[in-house]
Design brief:
Layout lengths: L1 H27 L20 E5 L2 E6 L4 E5 L4 E2 L8 E4 L4 E2 L6 E3 L1 E8 L5 H11 L5 E11 L2 E10 L4 E9 L4 E9 L3 H14 L1 E2 L1
Antiparallel strand pairs: 1-2, 2-3, 3-13, 4-5, 5-8, 6-7, 8-12, 9-10, 10-11, 11-12
């Protein structure tokens, strides 16, 4: 009888340990399948705090450990109910029909609660964002804040807008900082964006 009880207890312990290990793997190691990416959540816009400093506007999301600096005269435009932090250059003008830039620069930061690796991410970008109107498309693997990063840049001839999408991969989330620039202001916006990325940290 004692032997049966011991065997049963051992069985329960093994099952519990296996379940606990699976849960730990699911939470900490498992990559988020791309088919689930359209359902992931983003950090709240209210988590981004903006502080004026001598070097520019310091943007911080202490909850996610993210910080970077945009120029002092840029303006934050999004609401706390949205899942990102959006900044416009002072000369920015938005098209009424599609909300794309008609003039100036835009930088948007967001943190997606998904886990991936650089191979899966690059394949996903190529499959989902290779629009026929995209020109001069580039995929560059680099490191930002010591994390593997893919920069996907392109000109969109239909919208007359340039995009530089910077995707930073960490073990807990995907950090994205995106430049949108009007066609005529592309070079100016790119210079500002490079300066911003040099200030970016993730702790």
């Amino acid at each position: 009888m004692k032997k049966k009880i011991i065997v049963a207890l051992v069985g329960v312990v093994v099952i519990a340990a296996a379940a606990g290990g699976y849960f730990w793997w699911w939470k900490n190691i498992r990559l988020t399948p791309p088919k689930e990416w359209n359902t992931v959540t983003y950090t709240d816009a209210k988590d981004y705090i903006v502080t004026d400093t001598p070097n520019g506007k310091l943007v911080e999301n202490k909850k996610e450990g993210l910080s970077f600096i945009v120029p002092s005269n840029w303006v934050r435009t999004n609401k706390d109910t949205e899942g990102d932090a959006m900044f416009l250059s002072p000369d920015a003008k938005i098209k009424e029909g599609n909300q794309m830039l008609e003039q100036g620069c835009k930088i948007v930061a967001m943190v997606a609660r998904l886990k991936t690796n650089i191979i899966v991410l690059e394949q996903y970008l190529k499959e989902n964002f290779s629009w026929s109107s995209n020109e001069n498309t580039m995929y560059e693997r680099i490191k930002i804040a010591n994390y593997p990063t893919i920069r996907n840049s392109f000109d969109n001839s239909k919208l007359k807008v340039y995009f530089d999408n910077t995707h930073i991969i960490t073990s807990k989330a995907l950090y994205e900082v995106v430049l949108e620039a009007s066609e005529q202001d592309k070079e100016k916006c790119k210079t500002i964006f490079e300066t911003t990325l040099k200030t970016l940290t993730i702790k």
